[in-house]
Amino acid sequence: MRLPGAPEVAYRGDSLHLEDLSVSELARRFGTPLYAYSTASMERALSAYRRALVGRDHLICYAVKANSNLAVLQWFARQGCGFDIVSGGELERVLAAGGDAARVVFSGVGKTRAEMAQALAAGVLCFNVESVGELEALSAVAGASGRSARVSLRINPDVDAKTHPYISTGLRGNKFGIAHTEALAAFRHAAEQPGIEVAGIDCHIGSQITESSPYVEALDRLLDLIETLEAEGIAIPHLDLGGGLGIAYDTETPPDAEELIRRLLERIDARGHGGRKLLFEPGRSLVGNAGVLVSEVIYVKPGESKNFCIVDAAMNDLARPAMYGAWMRIVECERGQGEPQVFDVVGPICESGDWLGRDRALAVRPGAHVAILSAGAYAMSMSSNYNTRGRAAEVLVSGDQAWLVRERETTADQIRGEHLLPGR
Ligand code: LLP
User: Fold this and answer.
1) Quick check: 297 pLDDT over 70?
2) What residues form DSSP beta bridges with 60?
3) Would the CB of 285 count as within 6 Å of ligand 1?
């Protein structure tokens, strides 16, 4: 059986492997639920972007929110990547992981003044500003600290990314960006604000996008704006096309990053913008297929209309199925353990929404391990402590080596910072 996603996650004989390590061995060694990520897969994904961008002035800013483990960030920093952040907390993570603030773009619709001051002091490359109100606040914060803020305005190009409504961000009705119809006025305003230096223009139209055409449409809108602005004497040094490229969870066939970027570059060159600095903010397409969530089967519960396979991972560990109805492949870590049965794979949390997969054929019994594939992005980073469940451990794998990069969270970790009332 050919698994979707990364070739680094494959069966060797009947044992699922992540690179050269057996996934059930990892489960025994580090316990479950366990997130494990393949560095070779990350490297393969990053090099597809790199190949397409050879010879171009560019910066790949890994979107921290997809997977913000420090070791993952450190790995991207060592590859020379920049980062796309959306909070002061993510900035601290990047710095703690050895990332370079001068390669950081700061996105998000609700940056606070405190976060602006923190990012200015750190010396971030650019603020991706999403409203005129934010622009004015940033000008004030920059003025108060005697610094100048480099900004890009995030444009909402009103294109349909053809993805899940919760992760579509470039339509008129979304909260993101400045409407492209108001962009010229916003840039003129930015160019006059004290403490503001216009550094670029950006957009991000959604996530898990599986076609190139919405990107080309957005690109055209941004190039139209650049041409008008530059004709007026407002220089737009860089063009940031955001992230959003999808991955195969199942039978999706998104373009390869290399193919997508080549298609965008053709358009950029054809319109005479070949020399412009290019930024991208990929998250999922760099780490999504690199990760698996490994879980142990606790009980197998036959039911009248459904059989349930109750595992030790739950919606607090992996929210995507409960939150978006996302389909993620679930496989046995050891194959050939009897006849498959059809199960709903569910966690121990007290909610019917706590499911990881529905109607899945699996040959499993209690004590067996299953792996949820393509769980490298928006998985651990969206986990919570619901039901006072400690968050999973994480390991990074390279060849036959595995490093524990996050310890399993204890209850003591969870209640640290909580206080009982005084008296009795
Ligand atoms: N840049 C900006 C401004 C973003 O908002 C995002 C993601 C990215 C870059 C990275 O996008 P990517 O390349 O990873 O698609 N939790 C959802 C996905 C939310 C995406 C939010 N923004 C999920 O699990 O599908």
Assistant:
1) yes
2) 280
3) yes
Average pLDDT, the chain: 96
Task: Count Cα neighbours of 279 within 13 Å in the Cβ-side half-sphere.
Answer: 30
Distance 192 CA to ligand 1 centre (A): 31
Domain 107-282 in the same topology as domain 9-38+288-415: no
What does the pLDDT look like over 305-356, one tens digit per residue?
Answer: 999 999 999 999 999 999 999 999 999 999 999 999 999 999 999 999 999 9
Residue type, 52: A
Best substitution site from 90, 281, 356 to test ligand 1's pocket, by max atoms within 8 Å of Cβ? 281
The CATH class that applies to domain 9-38+288-415 reads mainly beta
- Residue 4 confidence (pLDDT) above 80: no
* Domain extent listing, the chain: 9-38+288-415, 107-282
Judge whether 203 counts as a catalytic residue: no
pTM (two decimals): 0.97
How far is the centre of ligand 1, averaged over its atoms, from the C-alpha of 281 (Å)? 9
What angle is formed at CA 48 by the lines to CA 257 and CA 285, rounded to 5 degrees? 50
The superfamily CATH assigns to domain 107-282 is Alanine racemase (3.20.20.10)
Task: Give pLDDT tens digits for 79-91.
Answer: 999 999 999 999 9
Residue 379 Cα: closest atom of ligand 1: 24
3-state class of 70 per DSSP?
helix
Cα of 362 to ligand 1 centre, how many Å? 31
Q: In percent, how much of the chain has pLDDT > 90?
A: 93
| Amino acid sitting at position 289 | N
Report the C-alpha gap between 284 and 55 in whole angstroms.
25
